[in-house]
Amino acid sequence: MGYYQAERRGGRLRFPAAFFGGDYNPEQWMGDKNWREIWQEDMRLMCKAGVNLVSLGIFSWAALQPAEDRFTFEWLDDILEMLAEQQIEVCLGTATAAQPAWLSAAYPDVLPVDEKGMRHKPGVRLNYCPTNEDFRRLGQDLVRRLAERYGDHRALRLWHVSNEYGPTCYCEHCAMRFRDWLKLRYGRLEELNRCWITAIWSRTYTDWEQVQPPSSIGEYSLPALQIDYQRFLSDMNLEGYLGEVAILREVTPHVPVMTNFHGLTRYIDYFAWAPHQDIISWDSYPRHNATPDMAAFHYDLMRSLKPRQPWLLLEQTPSQVQWHQENPLKRPGVMRLQSYQALAHGSNSVMFFQWRQARGGREMYHGAIVSHAGHEHTRVFQEVAQLGAELKLFESALLETHMQARVALMMSWPNWWTVENRHTPSRYFNYIAELQHYYRALWQRNIAVDIISPDQSLDSYQLVIAPLLNMVSEEQGAAIEQYVKEGGTFLTTYFSGMVDENHRAWLGGYPGPLRRTLGIWVEEFDPLPLGTTNTLFCLQETDDWRGSYSCEQWCDIVHLEGAQALAVFGQDFYAGRPAITEFHHGLGQSFYVATRPDAAGLDMLLNMLQSRLGLSAPLLVPPGVEVTCREGRLTTYFLLNHLPETQMIMLPEPMRDVLTRRVYEQEIQLPPLGVAILIPAY
Amino acid sequence: MGYYQAERRGGRLRFPAAFFGGDYNPEQWMGDKNWREIWQEDMRLMCKAGVNLVSLGIFSWAALQPAEDRFTFEWLDDILEMLAEQQIEVCLGTATAAQPAWLSAAYPDVLPVDEKGMRHKPGVRLNYCPTNEDFRRLGQDLVRRLAERYGDHRALRLWHVSNEYGPTCYCEHCAMRFRDWLKLRYGRLEELNRCWITAIWSRTYTDWEQVQPPSSIGEYSLPALQIDYQRFLSDMNLEGYLGEVAILREVTPHVPVMTNFHGLTRYIDYFAWAPHQDIISWDSYPRHNATPDMAAFHYDLMRSLKPRQPWLLLEQTPSQVQWHQENPLKRPGVMRLQSYQALAHGSNSVMFFQWRQARGGREMYHGAIVSHAGHEHTRVFQEVAQLGAELKLFESALLETHMQARVALMMSWPNWWTVENRHTPSRYFNYIAELQHYYRALWQRNIAVDIISPDQSLDSYQLVIAPLLNMVSEEQGAAIEQYVKEGGTFLTTYFSGMVDENHRAWLGGYPGPLRRTLGIWVEEFDPLPLGTTNTLFCLQETDDWRGSYSCEQWCDIVHLEGAQALAVFGQDFYAGRPAITEFHHGLGQSFYVATRPDAAGLDMLLNMLQSRLGLSAPLLVPPGVEVTCREGRLTTYFLLNHLPETQMIMLPEPMRDVLTRRVYEQEIQLPPLGVAILIPAY
Amino acid sequence: MGYYQAERRGGRLRFPAAFFGGDYNPEQWMGDKNWREIWQEDMRLMCKAGVNLVSLGIFSWAALQPAEDRFTFEWLDDILEMLAEQQIEVCLGTATAAQPAWLSAAYPDVLPVDEKGMRHKPGVRLNYCPTNEDFRRLGQDLVRRLAERYGDHRALRLWHVSNEYGPTCYCEHCAMRFRDWLKLRYGRLEELNRCWITAIWSRTYTDWEQVQPPSSIGEYSLPALQIDYQRFLSDMNLEGYLGEVAILREVTPHVPVMTNFHGLTRYIDYFAWAPHQDIISWDSYPRHNATPDMAAFHYDLMRSLKPRQPWLLLEQTPSQVQWHQENPLKRPGVMRLQSYQALAHGSNSVMFFQWRQARGGREMYHGAIVSHAGHEHTRVFQEVAQLGAELKLFESALLETHMQARVALMMSWPNWWTVENRHTPSRYFNYIAELQHYYRALWQRNIAVDIISPDQSLDSYQLVIAPLLNMVSEEQGAAIEQYVKEGGTFLTTYFSGMVDENHRAWLGGYPGPLRRTLGIWVEEFDPLPLGTTNTLFCLQETDDWRGSYSCEQWCDIVHLEGAQALAVFGQDFYAGRPAITEFHHGLGQSFYVATRPDAAGLDMLLNMLQSRLGLSAPLLVPPGVEVTCREGRLTTYFLLNHLPETQMIMLPEPMRDVLTRRVYEQEIQLPPLGVAILIPAY
């Protein structure tokens, strides 16, 4: 499928202990008179906090190369020595996330061009064209020097390529590269015209040079072009990443390489990038009012990107951020709970942005372990240091684990671009929110979930849920059918199976290549106005399948072609028509949800699936308590109380809490925001 | 008044039957392997649906001319033959609504420039500068070839020039043409300075070259310039249209010519364009939550553009559109009801966009007669085919009718631009909504309404209503006075009679040239903040003139100069001052409404006018039932039930329903969404 | 501190009477056939209205210089003569607020460039680059001709330079001037890098040419750059102003010079401009729903800009404006009340925009003394004329007064830019609203307030209130400490003392240089989400310090370092921590308010301060009545009733009302919107 097929194997991280630390930018302080003392104070405080890893040099290009022909590595030599003396290891940045001012001035084409054709001006970060040759040449030159100078340094643990990728550009050079990319994908221009159906509105291309990137003041109405351009942008960023990676793997084959993901970057297809990471790392910045399942969703996605391997929580704020409209403090205990939640979902690290609060710039009010006050006598420092001390209790056996879910949630970046492109019949689609709607229902039941791409094997799953799977290729449809025929359970929803991988509508009847698997035909769809709802009525009620529920967003008009209705709509001219269907196909079964049920309806649906498939939580816990299990030499249970009241959990056998070393025979009480990490007691 | 004075007479359409069909884009399917079968299937299904006219070739430029020096008419030859064999006629597009990619590449100046000076990029449709010479030359060359090749084809019924006009541009060439346009309008630069009052803010032009189009980053504060530029844009689009029309009339003088209007295009002055259409056609896309009077308003406008002639409903969706935030389905029966409503207001056709649903592009989810499923076994196809069968019952005698209203609603594009220009005392003006406010009050009473321009003769009307007539020329004011003096009834509202045709304030006292006709002087006006209301109190209460009503938006402070107050304001420092006035002038009378009454107040006002003037509905019907009358050899009544309950209508004489052929002696029952088309039974 | 240090002394205005009149633009009417009669009618009506001063020629550049080499002063000669004959004096504009069309055409670089790099097009006003040399050269040439021609004209009273300054630009020339400005401020590039902390994100400048203005598509993340650019823009506008002023002072040293401020222009630092004005003048356009304290706030700011001198109310509308979303009329009496409120706060004039309503253009619906009706028989004209007659009663003794407050509110433009820059921890900061929140609490108690800059002497004040004083330099902090030590009372709030004058965070503990003065350390801050509140509980309750109050926006976590808590927070994890503190330092005291109390809480705080410091109103009046005192040879009390009911005020001694000449022995009744101006009766 992808542009970059091969998975390169790099070094693999071992975990004698959990990583603990954060981003460290000592060069920001070299303008201060007393910067040497500040650096010394950093060392003292890092030891005090229990830091064992820092991310260094992420934005140091200008500090390392103040002119094209001049390099100043000496300060980095010094700080690496100072860290090494404290046994603090380094995740070393390639420093290419922000080019120096001299570079933008000497090579103005490095600056990206927006979709209207306006070239950016110098400044900020990630402000470069992802295909620019000069940027790549100069960046790679720096990377080679860093690798050669520090490849054998005793402090070096991990390479950190660039930072939070995501530049976009629409310049002439990108347009030229895009055409080459399209030639690879489509071969002949006639094939591109056929796939994009350019005959509509007379847009047939008769020369490759006529193909331009999408633009809001040009071609904005071809979903296929838009989706291909998103694919292209992800690939071009990946190409830039791989350019640096190739050098690092050549010069330092023993050192693992990665770049840090953050949020869910629309422009970067994580599934396509994951094979090229030696370890997955992620920057976690949940909104102050995000529910805990939202962090869990992201953590599970990171975990799933490299199955059976740990990942790294590389950044989070110890207290607050500064970039939202409102940036309240994390309340006492929240940072600790969120950190353990990451471990509970497979992370082997707790890292922060950043070590010392910046004195200026955009992020000067972003929380840090060491605040502007400059000392350790703050609530935040104390909470961090306490956590650092606790993490020392994590032995290697607790970290060499894996997690395998029996349930998968299917997600895909091209499908995201498709579902949210501006020409769909409803402008209210929010693909990630829909995934999280289903994820939340599973999370509340403490059912472990992998988040997988439609191109991955489904063999190891009992249940695969694929909400809003609008884009389905012939091959993907066949693989899903094969999975069901062999005994799997597959669930999908409205607006699925409607377009192929080139965004051409499936003809002959929706849901296209899923139609036979689901045993239905969707004749029509009715996107509901905001605020309008319909009702779902369960048919053939049983104990775990009953009631009526509100639904919204969309109603399909479904014909049964072998499937049977589990629920029907209650209103409108399609009252009584199927709303949820079930179909037995081969050894397996499939479900279709023709609307968006409310949370209670979804809970009932999951309840039914859970009891049919025998899915269970690791431990039985009260609502609001999260429990996960990491399997390895020791089976480790993570218990997290997200509620403001103490919760009691019954234990099936005596267990020991890793943090307190106490043994609990029958039950354990978790205080508000409390955490327990339990292993078999005997 | 206008830039293009002459009305060219073209061919006139005859109607042996109502047209039924839709947009047909067979070239979209030529990329498919089995496109020949698809075309054959189209023919079969068209016959099944009762299609007798298709709009063909609207966006086929690239398919007809893949390079500047290469033409490929063969496919069009074929499809025209296939259609002709089925006795399906063709409304043939000139294919100039979207230029091919090669054209934009070869002539980059064809692309329009926005008001900030940024040139568009290629793509989408209607994406050209309306004054560009190369676009016109190449387009006209194609038109000539089409006319010469197909002018005598037996399938050709009607020319369809371009599609839904409306391009705007602010390029250097437009600026140059604008200056020429201004020279024609104003003669000398001194006269332009005088009319635009450029002495304000030192903007006096001393050379024609200094005159630039309006721009939000330039001259955005001269309403006169903005309004003239809107006039200019409408004229330049018309000039482009006439360029194609001239060729068609030269080569095929026997074939009628038109372009299709849609919605209410701000940039296109329909009144100025109408004389150059051989028949008016319109694309109807009411919002899902639009009330039925809104469609009626548009239908009546289309009907009024060419008095005493039928018009064509050229596009509507059979099910749903895809371009709004929310695009619910038309419920069963709604499409039929809306189609008959068009006929009830003078249309002689029911056409759809489009025949076969597109497989890609922006409109791929737009409803079509033949959906992606590709066959006739769908609700939508069945409803369309049923309607097609019904329409066969319409004989020529039912179609050769006219409609003449006794009431006119005055509307003007320059006045629209004026009322909604951004420098008025209230930013809450919505000219069309205000017209529809008055229209609705008439529609609810089933009083037939013409919608006319201030430049048309008023002689045939008992009552002329001109809401928000802000811009009134000396001549228009005189014509209105003459109309009243000779016995007419004229009603206007607040914010009227304030500027002349060049947007210069009328001095000496508002409402300027209407002051003598109305017998009032408006000393001050008080634009009300949103949410603020005042109250209207009726004076000299009678049975059909009584009560108090809420009003909003604006209150004038009116002095009576001969008029008398019919209602007064209830609050604020102008409590007790006239809110509605009446004046007897010559043989007629005039009314002034100094505020925006709520719906109940407006209903009372119309009630009073109706009883005074003896205006009546064609039949007496319950509220929610619409009734219109088409006069001709047969008097035909259209009854439309917009309610979800069955309605009973008493008949003054026995009548036959054209659709069912049943005779009703005294009464007829209309089911929900039901329609009856009644002619005298004997 | 400032870029322009020297205060030039110009002529000083004397006030034999209050100025009364308005903007007069006779050249707008020279396009009319009967313009001579209109001018004559203007003279008659001005005398009728009591006009004694008009602002003339503000936008007359094109009328005075229709081509670069041609001047047409004759019409101005004429109108000056006509005015002089009527004993009407002139505030003569330099006509440079809007350049003629020929100038923009001949010198296209005169047009400003926006922050994205897009150059404006010609048109509107204030549409020039503030550093452009051609604009300045041509403008100064015109100014010299005006000064030489009219400097000795008997009608000339005052020079009015440009109008409502505020152009911004980001062109290459501005960038070059900005670099020079930065060199003056920082000396070496290394110092700029150190102060802006450019090491963050690798933005270190290695050549001055790399420094660019801020841009939303370039460097938008450096608050220090943004704030310096705002300083620069204010300085460049001032430089342009001073260029004209220098000529006027050279040619006409006897004539006072000023430009008119309006609203609170973000781009113009009024404190930096005030020393270069011979008199402060202001254009007053309160929103229709503004409370009277908001006008008072602005009036007091104008008064404070030149201590102990009167200022001029140069513009206000007699009825309504046209530029808001909603533009209701000023109700009868409101214009009079607002005019006297200006006099009550130190103005010696009541002037209007404008004399005669414009016939076209953006402001054609803006209210005027003479409306489009063109005569005096209107409510508005009558109210104006009545006021003009009243003002004749103001003798010189009433105008030669001063006002000195004992309370100061601290305000600063750089602090405004800082508090509202987009990278603060809360996007809900509204600096002016916060100042007005405190101002309102004082105003409601009729406590006179000066509004001062942090760089002014604090010696004459008992109480200094400095809300949101985020930016505090070392020197400012020291001055405040010195003031408190010597006995002053200082109050500041949350988000204060956090950055220095270059926007670098204060290290070591907030509030930086105010920490010792306040006796506290702010460890953390918690920006509250919108709609979230906390509670303030007063400690050690007394009669004038008790209760609990809601607070919002922000809560600091405060450590007491000598201070004591006056109130504590009621909720969240910092419940019980100090919310308001008090500290005795030297002979004085300081207060810190760690949140935003609601109006009741602020009133309680002011109540406590008032009783402690013995602050009193000039007279005891009921709530809703405003009272001020102008001191001079006569002590004059202004009583203003802002309520719709009559109010009774008890007098401490018999007083005479200047307007009615009546003597009141013990009490006076003020009707709704009524005014009394009282002097000692005997």
Give the helix/strand layout.
The structure is a homotrimer of 682-residue chains.
Chain A: E1 19-24, H1 35-49, E2 53-56, H2 61-64, H3 74-85, E3 89-93, H4 101-106, H5 133-150, E4 156-160, H6 172-186, H7 189-196, H8 223-251, E5 257-258, E6 260-262, H9 270-273, E7 280-283, H10 292-305, E8 311-315, H11 334-344, E9 349-352, H12 379-391, H13 396-399, E10 401-402, E11 407-410, H14 413-419, H15 431-444, E12 449-452, E13 463-466, H16 474-485, E14 489-493, H17 515-518, E15 520-527, E16 533-538, E17 548-560, E18 564-569, E19 578-585, E20 588-593, E21 595-597, H18 599-613, E22 625-632, E23 636-641, E24 647-650, E25 655-657, E26 663-664, E27 667-670, E28 675-680
Parallel strand pairs in A: 1-2, 1-9, 2-3, 3-4, 4-5, 6-7, 7-8, 11-12, 11-13, 13-14, 14-20
Antiparallel strand pairs in A: 10-22, 15-17, 16-17, 16-18, 17-21, 18-19, 19-20, 22-23, 23-28, 24-27, 25-26, 25-28
Helix pairs in contact in A: 5-8, 10-15, 15-18
Domain Beta-galactosidase C-terminal (chains A, B, C): 624-678
Family (chains A, B, C): Belongs to the glycosyl hydrolase 42 family.
Domain Beta-galactosidase trimerisation (chains A, B, C): 405-615
What features would you describe in this structure?
Chains A, B, C: Belongs to the glycosyl hydrolase 42 family. Chains A, B, C: This is Beta-galactosidase. Chains A, B, C: One of its GO terms (molecular function) is metal ion binding. Chains A, B, C: It is an enzyme of class 3 (hydrolase). The structure is a homotrimer of 682-residue chains. The first copy, chain A, is an alpha/beta fold. Chain A has three domains: 292 residues, TIM Barrel; 207 residues, Rossmann fold (3-Layer(aba) Sandwich), CATH 3.40.50.880; 56 residues, Immunoglobulin-like. The first copy, chain A, is built from 18 helices and 28 strands. In chain A, strands 11, 12, 13, 14, 15, 16, 17, 18, 19, 20 and 21 form an eleven-stranded mixed β-sheet that branches. Chain A has a six-stranded parallel β-sheet with strand order 5-4-3-2-1-9. In chain A, strand 25 and strand 26 form a beta hairpin. In chain A, helix 5 packs parallel to helix 8. The first copy, chain A, is globular. Chain A starts with 18 loop residues before the first strand and ends with a strand. At the A-B interface, helix 7 and strand 15 of A face helix 2 and helix 4 of B.
